[in-house]
Amino acid sequence: MAEVLSPAAVEAAENRIRPHVRRTPGMTVEGAAFGLADPVHLKLELFQHTGSFKARGAFNNLLARPVPKIGVTAASGGNHGAAVAYAAACLGHRARIFVPTVSSPVKIARIRAYGAEVVVAGERYADAALLSEAWARESGALVVHPYDSPYTIAGQGVVAKEWEEDAADGLDTILVAVGGGGLIAGVALWFHGRVRVVAVEPQGSRALHAARAAGRPVDVETGSIAVDSLGAKRVGELAHAIAEDHVDDAVLVPDSAIVEAQKRLWSRLRIAAEPGGATALAALLAGQYRPERGERVGVLVCGGNVDLTSLAALSD
């Protein structure tokens, strides 16, 4: 396992998934757009296939592991399910995706559009996960975990490798939203201490924050505007272990700051981010992370599967 969870695993994942994923753009934005003195570098991963970073981990799982004839299964609040459904369709596999009732109808429709069978059951992600695991035991389907898998983590880490290569002026600090921890684990695994990594969670869904306080993953209550993408009940064991070594800080933001971040991205840049995708930026707007003068800060905008009706309400 230690060999799998390494920067070399991220490089292997990149070679594996490169034909199947987009190299998403970066964008340097004047600090004034966010009330800051210095520019901010955005990594626009919402332009990835299926509208989030999740496609990277999904493809890495399906390409690095044998897939049985029955196909694959996953539990998801929406984005991971869409990514697994898309990857399965591209590679010729069947997919059954379990989603909780809290999931956005937009995300459920997207999963179905990629050809997967969708089972909507349970109030929260944890409920859907139990159903997915039961189906896997019964059928023999391959489980693609959204965050607590070395293949998922290594796949998500590819976004950090790209980011480092494309940020011409370099990065001192990056802000990354956290749900179950697979994304920040992959990012931190790649940077391996070269860049300060700050985890950002909603106040109502704080799985990593609670694990850091307890010294181990613990269950938390989940409730936030971003719960459909950042609503893990417990941070992954693998993600927590990596975060203990390579994540420098974890901050919490209120839902009001997440909404303001969505508004700011839309009004200033015409970037349509879902709540989870805007959460990292919320830490700057709410002052939960205050950069030093001259600090080169990067923000990962990780998801764009936003309900267009909700987006319209944010318009000027």
Description:
The strands form two sheets. Strands 1-2-10-7-8-9 form a six-stranded mixed β-sheet, with helices on both faces. Strands 5-4-3-6 form a four-stranded parallel β-sheet, with helices on both faces. Helix content is 44%, strand content 15%. It has 13 helices and ten strands. The protein folds into two domains: 7-53 and 149-313, Rossmann fold; 54-143, Rossmann fold, CATH 3.40.50. The chain is α/β, with parallel strands linked by helices and 316 residues long. It has helices spanning 7-17, 54-64, 79-91, 105-113, 125-139, 150-166, 182-191, 207-214, 227-230, 237-246, 255-269, 275-285, 308-313; strands at residues 26-29, 40-44, 72-75, 95-99, 117-120, 142-143, 173-177, 196-202, 249-253, 297-301. The radius of gyration is 18 Å and the shape is globular. Helix 1 (7-17) crosses helix 6 and helix 7 packs parallel to helix 10.
Jot down its keywords.
single chain; 316 residues; alpha/beta; Rossmann fold; 2 domains; six-stranded mixed sheet; four-stranded parallel sheet; globular
Blueprint (SSEs and pairs):
Blueprint: H1 7-17, E1 26-29, E2 40-44, H2 54-64, E3 72-75, H3 79-91, E4 95-99, H4 105-113, E5 117-120, H5 125-139, E6 142-143, H6 150-166, E7 173-177, H7 182-191, E8 196-202, H8 207-214, H9 227-230, H10 237-246, E9 249-253, H11 255-269, H12 275-285, E10 297-301, H13 308-313
Parallel strand pairs: 2-10, 3-4, 3-6, 4-5, 7-8, 7-10, 8-9
Antiparallel strand pairs: 1-2
